[in-house]
Amino acid sequence: MKQKIAIYGATGTIGDNALALIDAHPERFEITLLTAHTNIKKLAALTQKYMPPYIVVGQGHKQDFHNTLPDYKGEVLEGEAGLLEAAQHETDMALMAIVGFAALPPTLALQKQGTTIALANKECLVVAGELIMAGVNDKALLLPVDSEHNAIFQLLQNKNQAEVEKIVITASGGPFRTYSRQQMESVTPAQAIAHPNWRMGEKISVDSATLMNKGLELIEAHHLFAIAPDKLDVLVHQESVVHGLVYFNDGAVLAQKSLPDMRIPLASVLAYPDRIASTVPPLDLAAIGTLHFEEVDRGQFPCLALAEQALESGGFAPTILNAANEVAVAAFLATQIGFLDIERVVAESLSSAPVSTATPPAHHSLEAIITCDTETRKFCTNLIQNRL
After folding, report:
1. Vertex 13 angle, CA 11 and 16, to 5°
2. Helix, strand or coil for residue 380?
3. For the chain, which terminal residue's Cβ has fewer other Cβ atoms within 10 angstroms, N or C?
4. Per-domain residue ranges for the chain?
5. How far is CA 210 from the centre of its chain?
6. Residues with pLDDT less than 70, the chain
């Protein structure tokens, strides 16, 4: 029988790569759901090709979809309520590629249905790691799609967690790895989204440029692999060939290596526990010749240090961190603030936002997380409007 796949965020780069893999293995997979926020034209083209029984569009775009693809006979759902309704329909796996906090409610709803989640969203684990991991069971698996976490996931298969000394994820360093702080003051959104190695969406590309993405990934790794913050680290590796390293107590270090192409980790999770051809060329280390590694300069990229601070603090601090970063990145992309103002907004929010960072009860509720997120966004919006 074909595996039923629902793709949340089908029109982004993760969706593109996942559908390319599904096209390469039509005998294995069947699309049950596609969602998009505002890219209705592309969603309509995908719907016409795969004809899933359900689709979800952003709030206010239902009629736009009907106008674009009037012959579609399936059910068109809309907005946040549509995402939650779609999560009630049976599917074997849901690829969660919606960007930002918006992915959290449907992810939790899918877990309750016993659906395996292929998680390509960073923010879910950052803001609600305890809540998400509490919903993982033998049926509702959580498989990481991020190249770094997927690498660690593969390296830890059939390993004794007690033997792990340290987990290291790698960072390309982004487009401003060699920039001075003075040079970064004047960078533009166009420069920030021009990642040297990966083709990604605008928000995650900016996170890569500030190295906030590595901070978010450390918080994710803490929850995914149940490892203490002091056993997590980041290493700059500009070629993006080594994606993760695991240090063991006997002195051995295992590393996962592949070309920087999201089809590789996606193939790993879509076919889990099997392996399928990803259509990516094999890694040729001789052709690459040399791999470079260096320590991260947290003075140059303080967003990483802010994320590490939030991880150590625990409680609602990661939720505040994430909300502040989302607001600040959106403001930067809209040219309302400068590049280095992103870290300033995040730092101010962690120190002054009117939300308690005290450790909440274990597995704190979705409602409490949403309240914290909402209040932090209000604080950041006012901060940007009145002080920056």
Report:
1. 65
2. helix
3. N
4. 3-144, 147-260+270-304, 314-388
5. 15
6. 195-199, 356-363, 388
Give me the sign of the Cα torsion angle 116, 120, 121, 122: positive
- Compute the residue count for the chain: 388
Q: Note every long-range contact of 254-260, with CB atoms under 8 Å and residues 24 or more positions apart, other chains counting.
A: 254/155, 255/155, 256/150, 256/151, 256/152, 256/154, 256/155, 257/283, 257/285, 258/147, 258/283, 259/283, 260/147, 260/172, 260/197, 260/198
Report the pLDDT value the prediction gives residue 79, as an integer from 0 to 100: 96
**How far is 119 from 100, CA to CA, in rounded Å?**
12
CATH 3.40.50.720, applies to 3-144: yes
pLDDT of residue 288: 94
Backbone angles phi, psi at 236, to 5 degrees: -75, 130
DSSP element (H, E) containing 372 = helix 366-387
Count CA within 13 A, CB hemisphere, residue 335: 5
Instruction: Check residue 1 and give its pLDDT.
Output: 87
CB atoms within 10 A of CB 88: 10
Number of H helices, E strands in the chain: 17, 11
Asked, colleague to colleague, whether 3-144 and 314-388 share their fold, the answer is no
**CA–CA gap between residue 277 and residue 28 (Å, rounded):** 12
CATH 3.90.870.10 fits 314-388, yes or no: no
Give me the residues paired with residue 169 across strands: 234, 244
* Token reading at 154: 């593969």
For residue 252 the two structure tokens come to 């051995």
Question: Tokens 């791999």 label which residue?
Answer: 291
